[in-house]
């Protein structure tokens, strides 16, 4: 069953109906999927509430559906995990956002570090990229039937990230020169509620950046004996955490 996200104010629980008026969703339902009145879809409010609905009326501007069943979504992890990702080159960020959304990330924050080759020239370019990244997160959230859409933050400077680390129960930075401190060991017998993953760009982090993280509530970790690419490291770390907390791998 196809899944769509709508704003909470578009859901009338008392009268059991929902209005879909996002133009891309209206077009997708009517023109791409060619759904008709009487067919069923899933609606999610982005806050872990989902509805089985039946299409009642379709127009060029909106689609009205009736609520058949309402239930809580049980697709989100019980630990909040945010990714701070060194800005990579080309379309690598697209892949990072898509895969991390599938794996259950809460928020993705692109960051500028000393070794970042990629640059966002101005505010207009940033807004354009952010709009693209938000669409990728939305599409991935629909596909994997998330109960919420991950937040894609605007570009942060490295010092801004340092200031935020104290907000987390655990903040880890993947570092190629770390040999002993493994992520798996950090997660044993721990009840973390909020975790930050910090990943460098293609060239990694400068040593002084790692020291700054470590001096401000962060821990450097190894992800294993092989050096992972920037577009692989984030969702590898996320996968390990999700497995260790029991969110991945089944029961």
TrEMBL record:
GO terms for molecular function: rRNA (uridine-N3-)-methyltransferase activity. Keywords: Cytoplasm, Methyltransferase, rRNA processing, S-adenosyl-L-methionine, Transferase. It is an enzyme of class 2 (transferase). Its EC number is 2.1.1.193. It is found in: Cytoplasm. One of its GO terms (biological process) is rRNA base methylation. The keyword Transferase applies. It catalyses: uridine(1498) in 16S rRNA + S-adenosyl-L-methionine = N(3)-methyluridine(1498) in 16S rRNA + S-adenosyl-L-homocysteine + H(+). The keyword Repeat does not apply. Residues 22-67 form the Ribosomal RNA small subunit methyltransferase E PUA-like domain. It holds the Pfam family Methyltrans_RNA. Residues 76-242 form the Ribosomal RNA small subunit methyltransferase E methyltransferase domain. One of its GO terms (cellular component) is cytoplasm. Belongs to the RNA methyltransferase RsmE family. This is Ribosomal RNA small subunit methyltransferase E. It comes from Anaeromicrobium sediminis.
């Amino acid at each position: 069953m196809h899944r769509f996200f709508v704003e909470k104010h578009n859901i009338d629980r008392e009268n059991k109906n929902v209005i879909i008026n996002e133009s891309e969703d209206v077009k997708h339902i009517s023109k791409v999927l060619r759904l008709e009145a009487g067919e069923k879809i899933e609606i999610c409010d982005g806050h872990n509430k989902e509805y089985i609905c039946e299409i009642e009326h379709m127009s060029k501007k909106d689609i009205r559906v009736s609520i058949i069943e309402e239930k809580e979504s049980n697709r989100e992890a019980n630990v909040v995990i945010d990714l701070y990702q060194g800005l990579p080159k080309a379309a690598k960020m697209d892949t990072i956002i898509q895969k991390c959304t599938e794996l259950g990330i809460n928020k993705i924050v692109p960051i500028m570090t000393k070794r970042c080759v990629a640059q966002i020239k101005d505010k207009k370019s940033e807004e354009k990229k952010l709009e693209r990244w938000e669409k990728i997160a939305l599409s991935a959230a629909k596909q994997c039937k998330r109960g919420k859409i991950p937040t894609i933050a605007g570009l942060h400077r490295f010092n801004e990230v340092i200031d935020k680390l104290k907000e987390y129960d655990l903040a880890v930075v993947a570092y190629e020169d770390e040999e002993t401190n493994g992520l798996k060991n950090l997660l044993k017998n721990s009840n973390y509620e909020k975790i930050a993953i910090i990943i460098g760009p293609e060239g990694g982090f400068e040593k002084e950046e790692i020291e700054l993280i470590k001096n401000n509530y962060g821990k450097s970790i190894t992800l294993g004996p092989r050096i992972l690419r920037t577009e692989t490291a984030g969702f590898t770390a996320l996968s390990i955490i999700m497995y260790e907390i029991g969110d991945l791998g089944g029961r």
